Amino acid sequence: MKKLLTLLALSASTLVPLTAYAQVQSSVKHLAWTKNATIYEANIRQHSKEGSFQKFEEYLPELKKMGVSVIWLMPINPIGEINRKGTLGSYYAVKDYRGVNPEFGTPADFKHLVNAIHAAGMYVIIDWVPNHTAWDHPWAKEHPDFYKKDKDGHFTPPVPDWMDVIALNYENKQLRSEMIEAMRFWLTEYQLDGFRCDVAAMVPVDFWNEARVALDKTKPVFMLAEATEFQLQEKAFDMTYGWQFKDLFNDVAQGKKSAKDIDAYLNGEEKNYHPNSYRMLHITNHDLNSWEGTEFERLGDATESFLVLSNVLKGMPLLYSGQEAGNTKRLDFFERDPIQWKDHPFKQLYTKLFQLKKTNKALWNGLAGGQLVKINTGNDDNVFAFTRQKERNKIVAIFNLSNKEQVATVSHALKDKGMVDVMSGEKLLTTGSQKFTLKPWEYKVFAK
């Protein structure tokens, strides 16, 4: 069922609310710890020269200091050998849903890592690949009816280029049951906190609805869908990918679109998502880095600006392995290609933003956080400015989303006492209207 909601204007002259929008229902009950969570995608293969669970475990104190809440581990299952891509294969060609990839360590090593993450006060989800398996998964011989077939009765890849995997058939009820039981295994045997589900929209929504109920009965879970379909968040998933933002960021950075297009999107398609639904925001991840280019290639001089924007818009920010080191390398997907770790300002920047999200309710997720209200600056074609407020917490963000110097005027949003420049830590002394001259891609974020 669709609803029509209207947000009241805070100021007719300077603040523009997100007005009437249609949205689907959402009955998902988020776990309390997710309300101010941030997420780290761990690429174990490339995270260290050793590429092991044990070596990654040594890095946990750094993630804790940064303020990371959730660690998402890319697939940790054994990888198929038939039609394998490259030397080591794709993480997403799963040969055994209940096994641990020996490339990374033993089941005991993995259990030790999970326990260490929990002991550090963080949570852990694993990448789950439900749409397809490797050709040499035991089901291919034991349950060929679990798979889709081509017109000649042969197994078939879900996408022509994915020749290392074969598509599963969710019309088979036994497959559904086996898949849910395999997921439950990781909750009971390893005490995981949930799943990131690969190409979730390629699997029927009614399966996910069924799975969420079954999993929650075993242990309440956090569910992330690699998908944008808002119907997945009606009953099954806490969070979907904000791919639309990624595309907008790329287009604005490359001069194909402008700040007003971000505002138009927020007032359009994004309103299909219920305010209770979480959206994951990011400027890179494993797919983008390896196949579309690093954030520096795609965003250029605008990289830092969009990094910050992805942390203060309504959504949960993602940090991908190596971003904190300013990684400029496209990581090989099928071979060992370790991240080159070095000191980089982005580590401090992510730390500052993640810690702010933990404490400032305006930035919290879903209904726990503040709604975004656009600020008219007199330069809306080039400057995107907004405020978010929840109870006594507030943030004001101003972004020059162009490659030229811009002037922006903020009339009332900064009148509150106690506003602090998030980046410098300096208190803002203002009595009302304030004019900012912003360098190309410069931003300002204030909070109280």
CATH H-level superfamily title of the largest domain? Glycosidases
Strand content: 15-25%
Radius of gyration over C-alpha positions, nearest whole angstrom: 22 Å
Strand adjacency order, main sheet: 4-5-6-9-10-11-12-13
Total number of beta strands:
20
Number of domains: 2
Given helix and strand content, the structural type is alpha/beta
What is the CATH T-level topology of the largest domain? TIM Barrel
Terminal-residue CA separation: 37 Å
Q: How many H/I helical runs? A: 13
Spans of 5+ residues with little confidence (pLDDT < 50)? 1-21
Supply database-style keywords.
6-stranded antiparallel beta sheet, disordered N terminus, TIM Barrel, 8-stranded parallel beta barrel, Immunoglobulin-like, alpha/beta, 27% helix, 448 residues, 2 domains
Question: Helices and strands in order, then pairings?
Answer:
Elements: E1 3-5, E2 15-16, E3 21-23, E4 39-42, H1 44-47, H2 53-57, H3 60-66, E5 70-73, H4 107-119, E6 123-128, E7 132-134, H5 139-142, E8 165-167, H6 173-189, E9 194-197, H7 205-218, E10 222-225, E11 239-241, H8 243-253, H9 259-266, E12 278-281, H10 286-292, H11 295-299, H12 303-312, E13 316-320, H13 345-359, E14 372-375, E15 383-390, E16 393-400, E17 406-410, E18 420-421, E19 434-438, E20 443-447
Parallel strand pairs: 4-5, 4-13, 5-6, 6-9, 9-10, 10-11, 11-12, 12-13
Antiparallel strand pairs: 1-3, 2-14, 7-8, 14-15, 15-16, 16-20, 17-19, 18-20
Helix pairs in contact: 6-7, 12-13
